[in-house]
Amino acid sequence: MINKVKLARLEKSLTQSELAELTNVTRQTIGLIEKGQYNPSLKLCLDIAQVLNKTLDDLFWEVGS
Amino acid sequence: MIKTWIRFLLPSDEYKEQKIVYYMAESFVLLFLSSIVLLALSRFTQLDMTISTFALIGVGSIYITVRYSLSGIEYTNLSSKKEFKKERKTTLVQSLIFGGIFTVLSSIFINLPTNSTDWLSMVAQFLLVSFLMYLLTFLSLVRSYKKNKDLLDDE
């Protein structure tokens, strides 16, 4: 799944470890999500969106799909 | 949160949890097929009940352990060479401790060494168990390290 999590995380100046800690997952999980190798649950998507002050559309909606 | 009594066996991280559930499900299918094979064999040969049960336990537990170790999800935060080296040393010590405990317990429950041959086989068992444990955890360490490095920040 293509997403903009990495971009939003860098905008907030957060490291993968910090985002992982704030969303109660491992750094590996964040890395996998950013690389599009793991599709997170809706709950985790919401947690990430809340931490990054974004909406689900901002992070996970693919324009033109 | 999904309500299941198996939750106490699962980690809190959802990716890791999902992977482990998959491995458990795969292990169940293997166990089911193995049971059918053993059942079919029991019609033609005289199978020892204890050995058959141990074989089934072995199939289930070894499969999950190997899959988990090789998937690289055990050491989720490991990404630097320094951390890798430190963890490798810890792994060696843990493997030796595990090998020691395993050998002592198996000697107590199976038979205590009485002659030099028994002592020799006890030492051989300790070395073998420690080596296998180290090999498995080392492989897990390497796989986790590689996986984490690939997922590292690019900045």
General description of the model:
The complex is a heterodimer of chains A (65) and B (155). Chain A has helices at 5-11, 16-22, 27-34, 42-51, 56-60. By secondary structure, chain A is mostly helical. Chain A is globular and about 30 Å long. By secondary structure, chain B is mostly helical. Chain B has helices spanning 14-44, 49-70, 81-109, 116-150. In chain B, helix 1 packs antiparallel against helix 2 and helix 3 (81-109) runs antiparallel to helix 4 (116-150). The model of chain B has no long low-confidence stretch (mean pLDDT 90).
Keywords:
heterodimer, A: 65 residues, mainly alpha, 5 helices, 57% helix, B: mainly alpha, 4 helices
**Which shape of chain A, going by the Cα principal axes?**
globular
Low-confidence stretches of chain A: none
Q: What oligomeric state do the depicted chains represent?
A: heterodimer
Nearest-integer average pLDDT of chain B: 90
Order of helices and strands of chain B: HHHH
Binned strand content of chain B: under 5%
Overall 3D form of chain B: flat
Structural class of chain A: mainly alpha
Please count the beta strands of chain A (DSSP E, at least 2 residues each).
0
